[in-house]
Structures are given as C-alpha cells and as structure tokens.
Amino acid sequence: MPNVISVVSGKGGVGKTTFAINLAAALNEFGHNNLLIDADVSNPNMLLMLQIPHVPLTLQDVIRDKVDIEHAIRVHHTGLRIVPTSHAFDNKLDLSKLGEAIETLPETIILDSPPGIDDANIRSILDLSDRVIVVTNPEIPAVTAAAKIIKLAKNLKKTNIGVVLNRIRDDQFELIKDEVEIMCETPIIGTIPEDPAVRRAGFDTLPVVHHSPLAPSTVQYMRLAARLLGKEYSPPKYLSIKRLLAKVRK
Known about the structure:
By secondary structure, the protein is an alpha/beta fold. Helices cover 40% and strands 16% of the residues.
C-alpha cells in the first residue's frame, strides 16, 4: 500500500481543494512523485479548477467498473498527476473499495476528501490514511468543525494528524495559533496566508506554487512540503527584497 495523505476539513469553504492541489504541486517541486485523487464525490471541482478537458475515465469508473486506476490518471501540463471525479452529481459512490484500487501504486497518494464528518466515505478515506491533514480557517465555526473530524480520526486510531491554518489575515477577530491548537488538541503543521496570488492563480487555472513562485502562500506551501519530506527549504533570497519594496511603495 502506498503512503496515503488525506486532506480533510470539518466544513466546506475553507480552501481544502486548493490546498490539496498546491500541496501536490509543492511536493512535485521537491521531486517527490505523488498522485492527487479527487475523492470529493459529492461536489468535485478539481477538473474545473485545473481546466482539464476531455476526461474519458474517472474515479467512478475505477470504483464501479474496476478499471485499473492507472488508466484514469490525467497529467496536467504542470506535471500534476490526477485521478478526477465526474462532475455528475453522485453522492452514492462507495469509496470503501478505494484501498484495493490504489494498493499497487508506488507513489504518495493525496486524497482530497468531501467536507464534513457525516459521510461513510470520510471514514473510508481516514481508514486508508497514513497521515491526516485537517484544513481549517482561523474562525470559530471552522475550527469547531475541524475539532470534530480530528476526534473522528483519533477514534479510528489515527495518530499522524496535523492542522493547517488556511487564509490567515491580519485580523483581530481571528483565532491565534495557540487557541486553535488548544481547541483541536492537535499541532498546527502549516499556515497559509490570505494571498491575492492564490486568486490570480485560480483565475488562470494553475496552482499558485507554479503560477507565483515568490508569493507568500507559495513559500508556506514549500515549507510544509519540505517538513513532510524531512528536507530543508530556504525561500529565495530576493523574496525579502521584494517584500521590502512593497512596504516602501505603501
């Protein structure tokens, strides 16, 4: 069985899929092969976000028709390898057989899961996981929901769990890292700032990691990927100069 990373969230709208795409892109930048699977069968949008045309085979074909998963892999022009899910509404796809489909794959698997916890597929995804990354925003409703899915993962005997705080702003009404760790009883392994570059990259249907290599969000994605791989990472030296110039212009 390959190394499986599940990307989950207690609620929708926290940027989970954007995170999963950019994590895969950052791992690629370190030369670490991975396969991104859109396992959000109730509301898949990875195809739209990356503008991947003409998909003859999807995760539905793999699960239902026992098509070899390698035949369903699409390669994005950035190098991302993806198993997409059909846009057709399909909340009845049973992912309990997903483990059989991926068991012979050699690379790291990143599963972009459905949001929430009231879904049998979430349990199937968590059961497969070697590492669980819980994406949340530093706001009380999102963190409360994150704490619930963390509890579910722990009930399933998962121990390698980390929280990523996404879309952090300089906002006095946001929770701080220490408060989130206390509420979730789980360490924060990464922080991604609110960054206009992410929106610009999304408009161009690209991961921000590839679209804007010097963006603050890209730096944090690269730091997290390095941490997961046990590698060193230093941001480009001229990044600090760029930030200094931005402050002077203000």
